[in-house]
Amino acid sequence: MGNLGSGSGSSYPSTLDTQTAVEVDSPAAGKTKARAAVPNDIIAAVIAIEAELGTLPKGSTSNVKTFLQVEHNTDGTHNATAGASGSLGVLGRAVFATSYALAVGSNTTEYMHFSGKSELPTSDATVVMLAPFAGNVKSLYAKAQGGNSLNGATVVTLRKNSADTALTVTITAGSTAVFSDTTNSVSFVAGDLLNWKIDTTASSSGAITGPMLISATLTG
């Protein structure tokens, strides 16, 4: 812990500074002799604060408070409009999608919302989400959570504007392990429609008997 005015500089940001000896008017008011350690330590503390915050910490907003509250409520929790379940998510954050506890049968193609809890319709148009900003989707993970008795592979694919993309994972027959695609990345712009496709047409029997879990990362 740094003691400002002692000549030891500032210990911020590792610890908070203190000031145990304040300046006084001595020998009389208006005649105090300034010790060099006092302004030097204060300057060191200011420089430490600047280094910790970096340049332009407010970004393009009016101040740092406004910048932080773009994604956070005043109590520190995340702003529900910035990335709650069922929304598109926040850049640089993960999005999570899960189906209700419905079976995914063999030899079928079903669809899921991009984020949040989803039914599993066979129509692509009923479970799409509208992107409000541009970015990229990457690091796709998928898992047949409940049980998997399908005798063929299940393919999970990111859809953009009702078309398959390169971001895809293949769950092997009968597996409940986690499968991932950490190689491909798909860009999108504001106004694009995003969702997931679950393809079990390689199977002739069996089913996924629990929820499908899907997660991915959004980046700018």
Describe, in plain words, how this protein is organized in 3D.
The protein has 220 residues and is mainly β. The chain has a domain at 86-219: Jelly Rolls, CATH 2.60.120. The chain has 3 helices and 12 strands, in the order H-H-H-E-E-E-E-E-E-E-E-E-E-E-E. It has helices spanning 37-53, 64-68, 80-83; strands at residues 94-99, 104-105, 109-113, 116-118, 129-130, 135-144, 154-160, 163-171, 178-188, 193-199, 207-208, 212-219. Strands 4-1-12-6-9 form a 5-stranded mixed beta sheet, with no helix packed on it. Strands 3, 5, 7, 8 and 10 form a 5-stranded antiparallel beta sheet that branches. A two-stranded antiparallel sheet has the order 2-11. Strand 7 (154-160) and strand 8 (163-171) form a beta hairpin. The chain is elongated, with a radius of gyration of 27 Å.
Topology (SSEs and partners):
Elements: H1 37-53, H2 64-68, H3 80-83, E1 94-99, E2 104-105, E3 109-113, E4 116-118, E5 129-130, E6 135-144, E7 154-160, E8 163-171, E9 178-188, E10 193-199, E11 207-208, E12 212-219
Parallel strand pairs: 1-4
Antiparallel strand pairs: 1-12, 2-11, 3-10, 5-10, 6-9, 6-12, 7-8, 7-10
